[in-house]
Amino acid sequence: MNSQRDTHNTKLKVRLHVLTPIHIGCDDVYEPTSFVIDENKNKLIEFDPFDFVNSLNDRQRQDFLRVCSGDNLLMIMKFINKNSFKQKGIEIDIPQYLVEHYKKILTLSSFDRKLIINQFKIEKTAYNPLTKLPYIPGSSLKGSIRTAYLSALANVKNITNWPGKADDLETKLLDRTEGREKMTTDPFRMIKVSDLFPLGNVKRKIVYAVNRKKEKNNTSTIVDKSGIYTIFETIQPETIFEGTIDINIPDERANILKPITAENLLLSIHKFYAKILNEETKILLEVFGIRHHAVLTCNAKFREKLKKSCFVIRIGKHSGAEAVTIEGNRKIRIKQGKNKPPLELDHATTIWFASDTPKPKSNSSLLPFGWAILEVVNA
């Protein structure tokens, strides 16, 4: 990458290459009354409820109103499944286990809240309300970038085991003014990250997120059989997003002591996340007996560009506590169970994986969340 002079603003055109499943929460879910599952295609099909109602003939519409008046979610789901064979909508890949789960629900004779609501909540990843396509919010990417840069500063200033508040640590690292001027003197105020929108086809899939302990256990291929899982939509590997990062140089009146340069920012991203990736790679191989998909893809597609125009990064839900905390100053709370006080460690003791089932019988198909390559295409 060509370095930029500190006296000039820098506008970077960037692409985010997804390496492992990414989910970015948006407080929205796939409602059971707005989708059906095509068991022949292994697809969830989300449709517009108004389009569905308009597709019904007069008799079907009357039947539907009668079903809805009973406020029985199960009966509504059964009616929609029976009468939506011509309905078009957004199609999303799903695992076979989810197909079976859905079929099981449709065979119920009475409403079961635990099975339908509690165990069938499917969280959406962040999406553009106009196109309905997933996107990467600029705020999410900027948060990942900020953590990496703060860790680089902590390393340079040799600050470890900070005893105070995290916000005070950031003030120390960024040389910003305390009090009311804290935000105006924060150098990250000059970093503008746009939302990133898909370049080409978006691969998406609904998966089960399962939690596993980072411990060896010779008696079982899967260490933790607690059954803890969630279901959500993910952006799949080989999807690419595009956007911009503006790195502006403040004038003297801004009182920002140490402006951020493009080169320092990008190299700090790679150094921080590449280290986490290497550590996770060892855990996956030693504990779970699997090779890291992100590393395989990096070596195959980006090896010659790493630290030049391509930089390892991690983003989204279940990225791991290490990826969202400042290196050398981590205080990660570990729950110890009922009536036991939590531990405070410098590392997480579990890892989340994307799985096709809530209780996988082997580790071979498990993928960690959140890994990507941030490529600067105008470097």
Word description of this protein:
- The chain is an alpha+beta fold and 379 residues long.
- The chain has 2 domains: 10-25 and 134-376, no CATH class; 33-119, no CATH class.
- 30% of the residues lie in helices and 23% in strands.
- It contains 9 helices and 17 strands.
- It has helices at residues 49-55, 58-69, 73-83, 96-106, 113-118, 138-156, 166-174, 262-288, 293-302, and strands spanning 10-18, 25-30, 35-38, 43-46, 90-93, 122-125, 191-193, 197-198, 204-213, 229-235, 240-247, 310-314, 332-334, 343-345, 350-355, 367-368, 371-376.
- Strands 1, 7, 8, 11, 12 and 17 form a 6-stranded antiparallel sheet that branches. Strands 2-6-10-9-15-16 form a 6-stranded mixed sheet, with no helix packed on it.
- A hairpin with an 8-residue loop joins strand 13 and strand 14.
- Helix 2 (58-69) runs antiparallel to helix 3 (73-83) and helix 6 packs across helix 8 (262-288).
- It is globular and about 70 Å long.
List the helices and strands and how they pair.
Blueprint: E1 10-18, E2 25-30, E3 35-38, E4 43-46, H1 49-55, H2 58-69, H3 73-83, E5 90-93, H4 96-106, H5 113-118, E6 122-125, H6 138-156, H7 166-174, E7 191-193, E8 197-198, E9 204-213, E10 229-235, E11 240-247, H8 262-288, H9 293-302, E12 310-314, E13 332-334, E14 343-345, E15 350-355, E16 367-368, E17 371-376
Parallel strand pairs: 6-10
Antiparallel strand pairs: 1-11, 1-17, 2-6, 3-4, 4-5, 7-11, 8-11, 9-10, 9-15, 12-17, 13-14, 15-16
Helix pairs in contact: 2-3, 6-8
Given the helix and strand composition, which structural class is it?
alpha+beta
The geometry reads as globular
The stretches of 5 or more residues where confidence is low (pLDDT under 50) are 1-5, 218-223
Largest sheet: 6 strands, antiparallel
> What's the helix-strand series?
EEEEHHHEHHEHHEEEEEHHEEEEEE
Instruction: Please tell me the overall pLDDT.
Output: 89
Distance between the termini: 5 Å
**Helix content estimate:** 25-40%
How many distinct folded domains?
Answer: 2
Percent strand: 15-25%
Secondary structure: number of strands: 17
Tally of individual helices: 9
Radius of gyration: 24 Å
